[in-house]
Design brief:
By secondary structure, this protein is an alpha+beta fold. Among the domains are: 79 residues, no CATH class; 161 residues, 2-Layer Sandwich (Beta-Lactamase), CATH 3.30.450. The chain has 12 helices and 12 strands. The strands form 3 sheets. Strands 9-8-5-12-11-10 form a 6-stranded antiparallel sheet, with helices on both faces. A hairpin with a 2-residue loop joins strand 11 and strand 12. Helix 5 packs antiparallel against helix 6. It is elongated and about 80 Å long. One of its GO terms (molecular function) is L-methionine-(R)-S-oxide reductase activity. Pfam families: GAF_2. Belongs to the free Met sulfoxide reductase family.
Length: 377
């Protein structure tokens, strides 16, 4: 009986460890073979065939999963950009718990390995030591600054993520890499990454024109990195209440129209009632769209007037739908609220029915709240 008890305990422990490594481990969000993430037997299997075999398998992993790969339960392997001549030993100088893998002749990758400490030491090590590694990566590879900052934030604890924006020194000019999204990530993970990128791009800038332009681009690239139906998004952008546009902040005079007798036309943005409020086209990605939408009209106007998110599984069944693009079949609209008023809306269209769900609603509402608080309206 004791033998069976010990055997059963060993099996149960192994299953618990596999579940932990695949879903709760600090490295669980990095891409790589699931078998390699679950057990060290994956490495042992290839290593048993001879020296260099596992290194060859790591190259195959990079070709399949990208520049950052989880190769064992407690190790990630980072592939260097072409042309890098520095040795990885210098990047982890002064860290006793980490050791750097030396490059094989002709290799462009470095492996950062843990010396098999206990699980608790691995978890604390990730939070304490990874900043040192990534900061050195930032200094050596300027074009990968945004990715490096995002790597550090992925490994940070939840409290660190909330209070640690990507600063100007950490991110530099982040535009080059901010549209890169981790392959094979879940929709929730992609949205989390989008929120982090938004936080970095908006740091130090409160002009909504500039900010929404970048966020529209982020949304477009985020959806294209996901499988269907999210990859079928054909329009992503914003509509803004017309009095929030800089040129309409107060009554202005425009040049006279050809043949018009008057010397100018005065444009007023004082509304006699809320029904007269207008949404004007703002920054977006996709085909040309409707120039203006009145509050209460169509999906966008209805969401703006009701001040609530609207998900439409099939726009053909929505009363009064305004068809800017005949290919659109489903839509989600999220209002951006400031002091109890709708100042703008996030509008996402998809070419297939039921393209959006509660995950989209949850994270787009987070994005709307962030934009409301971090732009000057």
């Amino acid at each position: 009986m004791l033998v069976y008890f010990l055997l059963g305990s060993a099996v149960a422990y192994s299953l618990v460890m596999i579940i932990y490594r695949l879903h709760f481990h600090k490295l669980s969000r990095f891409p790589g073979p699931r078998l390699a993430a679950a057990t060290v037997l994956y490495e042992i299997y290839f290593s048993a065939w001879g020296p260099g075999i596992f290194e060859y398998e790591i190259d195959n992993m990079h070709r399949k999963f990208g520049p950052v790969v989880r190769i064992t339960p407690d190790e990630i392997h980072i592939q260097e950009p072409v042309g890098t001549s520095s040795n990885s030993d210098g990047w982890v100088k002064g860290t006793r718990e980490l050791e750097s893998g030396h490059c094989r002749p002709g290799s462009k990758a470095h492996s950062f390995q843990y010396k098999r400490p206990s699980i608790s030491r691995v978890l604390s090590l990730l939070r304490v030591e990874v900043n040192h590694i990534v900061n050195n990566l930032i200094e050596k590879h300027q074009v990968h600054r945004m990715f490096s900052s995002r790597l550090r934030l992925f490994l940070a604890s939840p409290s660190e993520k909330k209070v640690q924006p990507i600063s100007e020194n950490e991110g530099g000019d982040p535009h080059a890499d901010s549209s890169y999204f981790m392959p094979d990530s879940s929709k929730a993970d992609i949205y989390e990454q989008l929120l982090l990128s938004t936080q970095g791009l908006l740091n130090g800038q409160r002009n909504w024109v500039s900010n929404l332009s970048n966020v529209a681009s982020l949304l477009w690239h985020a959806y294209s990195s996901l499988p269907a139906p999210s990859s079928s998004v054909n329009w992503a952008g914003f509509y803004i209440r017309d009095d929030k546009f800089p040129a309409l902040a107060s009554p202005v005079s425009s040049p006279p129209l050809p043949g018009a007798p008057s010397s100018g036309v005065t444009i007023s943005t004082t509304y006699s009632s809320s029904e007269n409020q207008l949404l004007l086209l703002g920054p977006f990605q996709g085909k040309p769209a409707c120039q203006q939408i009145r509050f209460g009209k169509g999906v966008c106007g209805t969401a703006a007037a009701k001040q609530e998110t609207i998900i439409v599984p099939d726009v053909l069944t929505f009363p009064g739908h305004i068809a800017c693009d005949a290919e659109s079949r489903s839509e989600i609209v999220v209002p951006i609220l400031v002091n109890g008023e709708t100042v703008a809306i996030i509008d996402i269209d998809c070419t297939v029915p039921s393209g959006f769900d509660d995950v989209d609603k949850k994270y787009l509402e987070k994005l709307a709240t962030f934009l409301a608080e971090n732009c000057d309206w």
